[in-house]
Amino acid sequence: MNRNNISNQIEDLVKVNHAEIFDVSFPFYHYTGIEGVNGILGDNNFYVSKSDFLNDRTEIAHFQKIYENAISVLTSGRPFDNQVRIFMSYCKIFSEYLKVKNHSFAEKDSLYVLSFTSNNDHLPLWSSYTSNTGYNIGFNNNLNKYFEDKSMNFWVGNVIYDEDRQYEIIADGLGEASKIWSQANSLGISDQITEGINRKLFEKFQLYSMFFKNHFFSTEEEVRIVFKKRNSDKIFHRCSNGIFIPYIKVNFCKECVKSVCIGPINNLDNAQIGLKSFLDNNGYKKMKINKSKIPLRY
User: Fold this and answer.
1) 31-41 pLDDT tens trace
2) Whole-angstrom distance, CA of residue 268 vs CA of residue 259
């Protein structure tokens, strides 16, 4: 083992294990009001909001809480052997890194989030995101193939609600980092290498934090696309509830749109006729139009 090998391992450290969160089933759906449909399908682009302006503010702190509890949970009941000592020593170093650098996993200046769900007709989602009068847009297989800008850096994954699984994923990241740190320590180069290990692990955990949510939200069955903003991406702002929300625009091709579903209390014939006219006019001819099957009428 030499320094070049360790440097390569550090670079690999930030790579996400796709088996952990990215086994996504298609199609998935985006619930929105009529203005959202007009913007998304009318202009063929998503407005992707900055991560710390998500609807649920508590999720920003969720990963931080899970991480802070992780060390005691992960070491509880394990024999205090050399492997555990190495693991705990590195965890202490990483915690000091976070403290000295004043880092928080909530600091995600470059991450922007777009939310979907695997549930195509779910009353709480209709209520939360469309006031029951909106629509959901279905997207088909391999949405990522249809982004017009192929240089976008993004991750598509299922949100994880199971705290045991969240702890396990954090343990894997810390365990991988501690092994690299131990190898560097045995070669007498840990001082030069440690900063790089810490920085890469922090980046990895920031990304993972985008896919961890409290189990109380599990009925949403959320799927997310997380985009990393590039220097060339222009920031726009929209207004919602008295707040300016930063977002970037991400263009997609029409081929990725599978269907549009009309909400449960918007099932008027005129809604379907108007939607068909809108879709035809914007190049979505022969698009499948569904109506919610939820028997809700006001």
Assistant:
1) 999 999 999 99
2) 18
